[in-house]
Amino acid sequence: MAQTSTQKKGVGSVIWEYLTTVDHKKIGILYLIAGGFFFALGGIEAMLIRLQLAVPNNDFLSAGLYNEMITMHGTTMIFLAAMPLLFAFMNAVVPLQIGARDLAFPFLNSMGVWLFILGGIFLNLSWFMGGAPDAGWTSYASLSIDSPGHGVNFYALGLQITGAGTLMTGINFATTIITMRAPGMTYMRMPLFTWTTLVAAILIVFAFPPLTIGVFLLIFDRMFGSNFFIVEAGGNTIIWEHLFWIFGHPEVYILILPAFGIFSEIFSVFARKRLFGYSAMVFATLLIGFFGFMVWAHHMFTVGLGPTANAIFAVATMAIAVPTGIKIFNWIATIWGGSIEFTTPMLYAVAFIPSFVMGGVTGIMQAAAPADYQYHDSYFIVAHFHYVIVGGVVFGLLAGLHYYWPIMFNTMLNEVLGKITFVLFVFGFHLTFLIQHFLGLWGMPRRVFTFLDGQGYNAANMISTVGAFFMAAGVIILLINIVMTLVKNERVGTDPWGDGRTLEWSLPLPVPYYNFAQVPLVRGLDAYWIEKNEGDGKMMPAESIEDFHMPNNSIIPLIMSLGLFIASFGALYFADGKDWAIDAVSALDAKPWALPVLVIGLGITFVSMGVRSWKDDLGYYVTKEEIKKDLEELERGAK
Amino acid sequence: MAEMNQEVMTKSQLEYLRNQRTKEMRHQLVSFGLMIFLTFMAFILAASDVPAQFTIPIVLGFAFIQVILQFFYFMHMKDNGHDFAKLLIMTGMYFAIAFVVCMIYIVWIGAPIE
């Protein structure tokens, strides 16, 4: 590992390296590739939805296929695109930002990425294996228990696998940030991206178990004959809604907080100012995370919780606007009077403020429970959550992609093409979704596959579809940009943006596989900026050059995840043709091979867990001599 | 290879460590015994003819003490350096209780407050 990583390698060994890697930088790249792939899939599904709705009475997609399309679009975008892409940046940046050599549990990190990738593939295999899930991304139990065929089984099992990976990654990041910061990096000196990652990781730890429970109950109901949600047998479908939204609401903060972190970094770097109100920003982040758990029932105002419950949840929801407002004003104050440079990431960050505020304001409108009865299940809701998720999270991801690209790939994305992408994407985004607010207020319901002529929806839907094409054009130009940059491969040196403030920019590019030859001493917030202005522009080491310990690569995470992937096929077909099964699958042919497949899959997972537990893998040491050699080479390169 | 950098302990260090471990073991055994005793008492209460209104709060009280013992003695919450874990467990418990109370109230009891 240590010796070979600097040498030229064949394609096979590169693939093997990525299959077995436990290095957070490479896992970040895996997350980026897989998340980008699923982002493209979700985008194609979105385009098909918009094409179907472009004209009234359209028959481009059938009603059933349309349901599958919206379900898979939502599920893919949330679980398989937005979250993994955020994990990509967390993996690539957070350990560097806090001065660590890797995450606390590198093996677990590798588990996380493989569980996500295999879970995502499993979910999308449904397209080729008898139909995708069609009960909406929320998969409300009364719909999902009723849905015929295996679609919802794919949803439940796929989410269980990716969810396990996400939970592991959340635990991993929380532990890493709490225990592995460099000397001098106190909590109140952590960069904002690290702070938001910490809070998001804690939210994952608290929010994913309810989803795991809910999805397990769904799996038991659909595949193993239990009756948790089956009303005829004494079950209660409302429990699913509660479990789902107890997870689902914190989930949107898990998405938006890291995006907030990325924007905070970008604002202060490209305005060349310290982040305004740092401590207020940290406090607001924590408060948003805390409030996020207290508001889940605002997704269920029309379920009939009663006026008291609705009032409590309405007020709690409105309270979240306060810390979010603090953040918005702090960002504006950060730019204020700064020496601003409008790079592509900065453009996204600036466009994010008004877009996200618009989404926030419609959110407060919906928080008023009586008014929500009017907005519920209309396009107003669709417009709202796309404004916060695209205007917040996706802008954050695109900004982060341009901003952190040099750290991940040692090159710079083309700025001109980046700005063209920005213009097309932001223009297309507002064209698509602004009009949907009005469509909703005019009464167009969401999740309906077509609409009639003469209701006044025609022009607005056409405008919305045209906007979607602008967004697609923006993404295609981004892809061209990425391919061009990778082909040209013009390497950049340390601190490519010129104004890096935090630790990750102090490292040489490409970042050595051990990150820090010597763990740096942190003297304050924006550690690298302090050394640039008060020191000699280099981080002071906090230790002498010494041997240090690194983990070995391992294929076990992939095999362990593969076991669960195989077991899922067994579970998927287990209930077919059984007389105790739900109506959705009881009429299908019995599959006697389902149980053996389930057992074999779980067996593979347990055996590999055993191998991991009983076979000692103590890692290896990076020696003093090697580090000295690397440092000398670096010195020579600089001269 | 992991042992490469380990240094040999001095005699007094070793003795101190032994002492600490004996003490730790004593704590574990005492709390374990206490927990068995509490469980035993709970069973006796439930099996005997004591009225339910009396049994239920006492058994719940025992359960609470057991949870504390579990957290502090078996899960090392009493040791130093567990501040963050403690904070997270407390927060998690707060959320869990809030969820359970809310769900029982909303789903099964309905809305009794008019």
Kindly describe this structure.
The complex is a heterodimer of chains A (639) and B (114). Chain A has 639 residues and is an all-alpha fold. Chain A has one domain: Cytochrome C Oxidase, Chain A (Up-down Bundle). Helix content of chain A is 66%, strand content 1%. Chain A has 21 helices and two strands. Chain A has a two-stranded antiparallel sheet with strand order 1-2. In chain A, helix 2 packs antiparallel against helix 3, helix 4 packs antiparallel against helix 6 (151-179) and helix 12 runs antiparallel to helix 14 (379-409). Chain A is globular. The two termini of chain A are 29 Å apart. Residues 1-6 of chain A have low confidence and may be disordered. The longest helix of chain B has 37 residues, at 11-47. Chain B is 76% helix and 0% strand. Chain B folds into two domains: 9-77; 80-114. In chain B, helix 1 (11-47) packs antiparallel against helix 2 (52-74). Chain B is built from three helices and no strands. Chain B is an all-alpha fold. The radius of gyration of chain B is 22 Å and the shape is flat. The chains are: A mainly alpha (639), B mainly alpha (114). Chain A binds chain B through residues 174, 178, 202, 205-206, 210, 236, 238-239, 242, 246, 290, 293-294, 297, 305-309, 547, 549, 618-621, and chain B through 1-2, 4-5, 84, 88, 91-92, 95, 98-99, 102-103, 105-107, 110-111, 113. Chain B: This is Cytochrome c oxidase subunit 4. Chain B: It comes from Lacicoccus qingdaonensis.
Instruction: Report strand % of chain B.
Output: under 5%
Q: What is the chain-wise order of helices and strands of chain B?
A: HHH
Strand order of the biggest β-sheet of chain A? 1-2
Largest sheet of chain B: none
Specify the helix fraction band of chain B: over 70%
CATH topology of chain A: Cytochrome C Oxidase, Chain A
Structural class of chain A: mainly alpha
**Helix segment tally of chain B:** 3
CATH evolutionary superfamily of chain A: Cytochrome c oxidase-like, subunit I domain
Q: Low-confidence stretches of chain A at least 5 residues in length (pLDDT < 50)? A: 1-6
Q: H/E order of the elements of chain A?
A: HHHHHHHHHHHHHHHHHEHHHEH
Question: Outline of chain A, from the CA principal axes?
Answer: globular
Into how many domains do the coordinates of chain B divide?
2
GO cellular component, one term (chain B): plasma membrane
Main location (chain B): membrane
Keywords (chain B): Cell membrane, Membrane, Transmembrane, Transmembrane helix
Pfam family, one (chain B): COX4_pro
